[in-house]
Amino acid sequence: MSRVWLLLALLAFAAAAQAQEVTPPPAAPIAEPANSRELAIELAVLRAEQAADTAEQALDIAGALLNIFDAVAVLLTVFGVVLGVIGFRSVQESRRVSAELRVEAAQLREQFDEEIRQRERELELVRQKIVDSSESMSTQLQRRSDNALVAISLLTVGERQYRAGDYDGAITIYREALQLDPDNPIIHQRLGYVYCQQGIVDSALHHYEQALRLTPSLAPALAGMGFVTRRMAERLPAGVEQDLKYNEAEQYLLRALRQSPRLVDDDGESWWGVLGGLYRRRGYLDKAIAAYEEAARVTPQSSYGYGNLALLYMKRGERSKMEEMYRRMESIAASEAMASQGNFWGYADLIVSRLALGMTQQAAADLPIAINIAPRDADWMLEGLRDTLVDLAGYMDKPRADNIRDAINTIENVLEARQLERESRHNVGATAH
């Protein structure tokens, strides 16, 4: 429409220009006649001619305008036809495009609906898996919880077997508990301790390592590692390797005791005593005395610390302190032996203190009991008693030293007999296979 109005404006402008072109020029001045009548006639004639010219010019302008309007009408007609054709084609094209878009929209909607249905199916599968996994996990957790409770109960049974001197029975029960609860560090620690008491150092080391893997700060396991490492150092020849192993054992024990200064082992003895034994074997008498004194403070009801303090005072030549410690030791050890018939260390301390105090007959009666209590596969217990008596004999007068050596000989004979028995069982087993 804006183009039509522009065309009309141009046509109007052209008409105005043509009208200006036909405008008559100004009339020439008329000479005034002599007679007024003639003047009037002449003026009338002139005005008539001018009117005729004006009329003719108006007719020409009207004709031109009509021609222009006719042309415009034709153009408008043609333009309208063209617009009609174009509009008709645009409508058809719009309808075709609209139909195609509706088809594409329907297809997209179908694809979208299918994707939604697929996602819903996938979500349902995920939900079902989560439900199944949750139920399975709940079942597993319940089973693990039940197993853990049974394992704890077995720990109590295993401890009773150990205190009864049935080390093999205790190990069997602890291993059953471990099958139920394999990631329980306490079970590993208990197994390590019993294996150590049996002298099976490799197995003890393995279980202590597993306990510390599960709980690196577990003080009983740290102390147990110190004890096992000390036992390993004692088997090495004197030299650099032995010193390094003793240093390693010392670090384990110090870590455990720094964390828990009143820590005791599964026999109720202070771990300070194990550290004191390490220092005593290395010749650090002052450190050993300090450690055993700490053990005596932690477990005043135990004879263990007093017996070792007596030996150290004896080595330092402080005989009066030595005898004082042995008297305390004998009194406490007698109570320990009476309280628990299976307490090997109570009887061992009782034997040592009585031999040191000259109570030979009582010591001779106690020695067979201690030998029978010591597990047959735990030679190191009798070896420990023998080594203590060897140290003691070196500081006693001859009569007492002779009695002590008799006890030493008895122990050595028992150790030899047990070794022969094990070799015989081994040979019989090898033959059977």
Low-pLDDT runs: 2-15, 21-34
- Helix-strand sequence: HHHHHHHHHHHHHHH
Q: Note the main sheet.
A: none
Radius of gyration, CA atoms, in whole angstroms: 61 Å
What proportion of the residues is helical, as a percent range? over 70%
Strand content: under 5%
Number of helices: 15
Structural class: mainly alpha
Q: How many runs of DSSP E, i.e. beta strands?
A: 0
Mean pLDDT: 81
Outline type:
elongated
**How far from one another are the termini?**
118 Å
Seen as an oligomer or otherwise, the chain set is single chain
How would you describe this protein?
- There is one protein chain.
- With about 425 residues, the protein is mainly alpha-helical.
- Among the domains are: about 145-215, Alpha Horseshoe (Serine Threonine Protein Phosphatase 5, Tetratricopeptide repeat); about 215-300, Tetratricopeptide repeat domain (Serine Threonine Protein Phosphatase 5, Tetratricopeptide repeat); about 335-425, no CATH class.
- The chain is about 85% helix and about 0% strand.
- It has helices at about 1-20, 35-165, 165-180, 185-200, 200-215, 220-235, 240-260, 270-280, 285-300, 305-315, 320-340, 345-355, 360-375, 380-395, 400-430.
- Helix 12 (about 345-355) packs antiparallel against helix 13.
- The protein starts with a helix and ends with a helix.
Key descriptive features of the protein:
433 residues, mainly alpha, Serine Threonine Protein Phosphatase 5, Tetratricopeptide repeat, 15 helices
Quick take:
Helix content is 83%, strand content 0%. By secondary structure, the protein is mainly alpha-helical. It starts with a helix and ends with a helix.
